Amino acid sequence: MSSLTVHGITKSFAATPVLTGVDLHVPEGSFIALLGPSGCGKTTLLRLIAGFDDPDSGTVVLGERVVAGGGRSVPARRRGIGFVPQEGGLFPHLTVAGNISFGLPRGQRRDGVRVRELLELVGLHAALAERSPHQLSGGQQQRVALARALAPRPSLVLLDEPFSSLDAALREETRVAVSAALTATGATAVLVTHDQAEALSMADQVAVLRGGRLVQLTDPRTLYRRPGDLDVATFVGEAVVLDAKLRGGLASSALGELPYEAAAVAVPDGPARILLRPEQLRLAAPRPDGPTARVRSVDYYGHDSRVWLDLPGGVRVSARLDGADLPAAGDDVSITVRGTALAFPAGATASEPVA
Amino acid sequence: MLHVDSPGPPREQADRGSRASLRGRALRRTPLTLALAVAVAALALLPLGYIAWYTADIGWAGVRELVFRPRVGELLWNTTRLVVGTVACCAVLGLAAAWLVERSSVPARRVWHVLLVAPLAVPAFVNSYAWISLLPGLDTYAGALLVVTLSYFPFVYLPLAAAFRGLDPALEETARGLGLSGWAVFLRVQLPQLRVALLGGSLLVALHLLAEFGALQMLRYPTFTTAIYDQYRATFNGPGATMLAGVLVLLCLVLLVAELRLRGRRGYARTGRGAARPVRPVALGSFTAPVLAGLGALVALALLVPLGSLGYWMLAGAATPLDWAALAGTTGTTLALAAAAAVGTTALALPTGWLAVRARGRLSTLLERSTYLGSAVPGIVVALALVTLSVRATPWLYQTVPVLLAAYAILFLPRAIVTVRSAVEQTTPLYDDVAASLGSGAGDRLRRVTLPLLAPGIGAGAALVFLAVVTELTATLLLAPTGTTTLATAFWSASSALEYGAAAPYAVVMVLLSAPATVLLSSDARRGLTT
């Protein structure tokens, strides 16, 4: 296993810039998720790291070895990077065993020991070894694809949206199996995904890509708690974004006077934008002193619920409630806020405001 | 109800858009493949270059004198209406038969598949001999249309059957779910995906027909090829034959341009996950009996009539003793030539077929079209060109087997390329990337991934070339080294002398030799049949 360092990577297709100066460091043995919306360049970055494409400029370093940039380009086959494509990409003309042993040295291919070892590692029964790919479920195909990628003991494993084609139950199960296998091998891994839940739950570090640029690289908790800007905030989770006036350590908003912390940069007193997460909102019977709202609708999920609220100023926010005691549409409720808000400069906007 | 987008998973599309620019990369990364494809195109264009050079040599006055005359107009009309009629008939028959065998509940689908490929084992000129020797009145347009269609429809049927097998049934199910009827599913979902195979097969039929000589000569239906042959035989007069060939090449050019405009630019690699699931056939219900009758009639006309006729002449000719030694020697020669040509031609088709899909663009299209163009030159002109060029440039090659094999390659490259290309279209570049990431080099990938995935296509291509060479008449007639007789040329000399009985044994051996390759073609297809 080795670390991965990407420095100043740029890449354009025809006249369209896809990546503009991306820097990224993945320490040895860690699991990083490249998170971003469609078209942010994350798959392109993955292909550059794998060696399927060459960057226009910048370097890719595996451990101590420069594999791309500075006038050299190590071909994909000499990089020792495992690759798990979106749809598994199992060779249809080979059995499961044939697929897994594909990257092994010739002498080890016939030997079933390594294949059994890898099947066990990804949580599949050894009896599947002689099956054809089309006889496997989607989740099994993905696990075999991972086993195939891990077989030659790569220094780095790349996963290109490996769970996006699976249904929810299978996705969860496959995620767990893949995480366990990656942890067991201590592999350095890069996962490309547009699913924030997947990124937050699986990775040690999450790199948020936007418009060909890396906008934030941090651990999942910090990313969710202290996103670098409102765009990232709304991308990694549901958000309540309100206009506020900062004064004397308190933010005055439609939800009342709230304690706040500044996000990435210090925000001066005066007009600002504040971020809350829906689970910070608590509802109670209406009181004359606190802010009140009218319940517009309730989305019930079983384990929790989302309550859509209309504030007096015409602002709509959502609250996440886990209690069984839910208000009904049309009810008037009072709102209290737990914890602190995160303050952003007044001009800050979220591209896809959720609330 | 309020609808707000949650930060859930939007579909990844823009990232995939970058794939479009991979074609440039593909060309840059395959200089060797590119060089090979260029060499193949150059070989294919050799006869054409000869015609062009000859035309320039005789000048405009010569061209005007030789081309602008009523005789050429007559030939043009004959050739055009025969090509249009045959392609239409073959497309309808091939499409209907392929759908019935691959997608309907017609009983005994395996048997029908074999029977529908089997007419390929009977060369067009043998089929023609079989019909005309029984019904001498067939020397009309309708007769030619009938005989040629029965000989050529498998060229459309085969790629279509393979394409049906490559279709993702999920797409059809989705369309059904959208409320489309079975007919609408066929028109709006299947047909667009089958377009490449349908056009490829139709192009093959049209090109083959433009170059067909034996069958039409025997039916006394005058087209360019027969006129060229007669002119060449009568006078050994180069300019007359070469100018007629020039017109023929122009026809072919028109065809290629039309096909180019009709064929989209998109590839059809399946996008679904994993491997395709087996298909549920469409129940024919009360249509089963008429469908069986229709298929039976087609097979009877295409297979039973020629075989019956051959059987008749074998018995009728039994009065004269059969020369077994001559027959065995001729057979051995034919077999060796066909095998060598199949291997060589398919190898030559690989780089071109690969680039046509993986490095789509003007250059790869040009290279692919070059081979089509080259092969559309009638066998006699290919032969003429190779004779002339070998005499002038490489006298030691004059009247040798390598020159004959080169002629076969030039003539039959499109058959191999069409099938290789369809096979490449059904595999995705992803496998190549994955194999590379597993440490596999270019040669290793070719051996362990590309070739196994392409094997059915390559096998089909080689079989088509083998079949073609076993029964190739025109070029062999003129190019074979002195004393080398193939089954086709032996058959031709006998039947031209109206010795139908003496010709029959050679025809029977040709059919028997073609049969294994035909079975091979159909057995590969059988693998995909669900029963």
From TrEMBL, chain A:
Residues 4-236 form the ABC transporter domain. Signal peptide: none annotated. The keyword Lipoprotein does not apply. It holds the Pfam family TOBE_2. InterPro entries: AAA+_ATPase (IPR003593), ABC_SmlMolc_Importer (IPR050093), ABC_transporter-like_ATP-bd (IPR003439), ABC_transporter-like_CS (IPR017871), ABC_transpr_FbpC (IPR015853), Mo/tungstate-bd_C_term_dom (IPR008995), P-loop_NTPase (IPR027417), Transp-assoc_OB_typ2 (IPR013611). SMART domains: AAA. GO terms for cellular component: ATP-binding cassette (ABC) transporter complex. Keywords: ATP-binding, Cell inner membrane, Cell membrane, Ion transport, Iron, Iron transport, Membrane, Nucleotide-binding, Translocase, Transport. One of its GO terms (molecular function) is ABC-type quaternary ammonium compound transporting activity. Its EC number is 7.6.2.9. It comes from the Bacteria. PANTHER family: PUTRESCINE TRANSPORT ATP-BINDING PROTEIN POTG, SPERMIDINE/PUTRESCINE IMPORT ATP-BINDING PROTEIN POTA. This is ABC-type quaternary amine transporter.
Automatic annotation (TrEMBL), chain B:
GO terms for biological process: transmembrane transport. The chain crosses the membrane at residues 32-55, 75-100, 112-132, 144-164, 196-219, 239-260, 281-304, 324-350, 371-390, 396-413, 453-480, 500-521. The keyword Membrane applies. CDD domains: TM_PBP2. Residues 1-21 are annotated as: Disordered. SUPFAM superfamilies: MetI-like (SSF161098). Keywords: Cell inner membrane, Cell membrane, Membrane, Transmembrane, Transmembrane helix, Transport. It is a multi-pass membrane protein. Residues 76-261, 331-521 form the ABC transmembrane type-1 domain. One of its GO terms (cellular component) is plasma membrane. It comes from the Bacteria. PANTHER family: FE(3+)-TRANSPORT SYSTEM PERMEASE PROTEIN FBPB 2 (PTHR43357:SF3), INNER MEMBRANE ABC TRANSPORTER PERMEASE PROTEIN YDCV (PTHR43357). Belongs to the binding-protein-dependent transport system permease family. This is Iron ABC transporter permease. It comes from Blastococcus saxobsidens.
